[in-house]
Amino acid sequence: MAAAALAAGVMTSQAQVYSQNIVGYINVPLQPGYNLIANQLDLDGTGTNNSIYTAVGTNLPNGTIVQAWNGAGYSSTKFAASSGKWNVNNSVITNSMNPGVGFFIQIPGSVATNVTFVGNVITGTNVYPVVAGYQILSASGPVAGGITTVNNYHANKNDIVEVWNGAGYTSHKWSGTAWGAGEPVLNVGESVFLDAATSTNWTQILNVQ
Q1: Could you tell me the pTM of the whole model?
Q2: What is the model's pLDDT at position 207?
Q3: Which of 39, 101, 167, 196 gives 55 a disulfide partner, CB atoms 3.0 to 4.6 angstroms apart?
């Protein structure tokens, strides 16, 4: 019943989370065009072995594109429905499928769809490195709420969090005492662009009761 309580706690109108214990699935809605999302469930509990095939899968429209941030720009891969394959599965794309990271997924055409992530919730204390400059990050688990008040990211002065709104970014800058435009709020299955003023760690704690 503890895991059922966790599932209820992370339910949002944007994404649905179901769990029997600490294994479950997340349905993340995808609009036509660009979506900035994250896989917050892990294949095997290690947090490192999630490929585009095990995370995103192949049940997506032909021509779907995934773009992963490589530190200076994007590495991309495109899905071909005829072969059921992504044309690139390099380390940048694979790394972006791990919990705590994020990526863009571009849906062709004009019809909305969704992606279903399946796996384990990574519980306990998890420390994720943040480098100075740009990166795409997410909460490591399916927990919706404020990036600081709920998800425990303690910003340094001049950190900027860019939240994708479907057409561009809403920018939130930490002044040292407050967030400009309000505290960034993450939905389940959502990631954000972080422009970190300095290198640090994001320590995330998720306990199942």
Answers
A1: 0.90
A2: 80
A3: 39
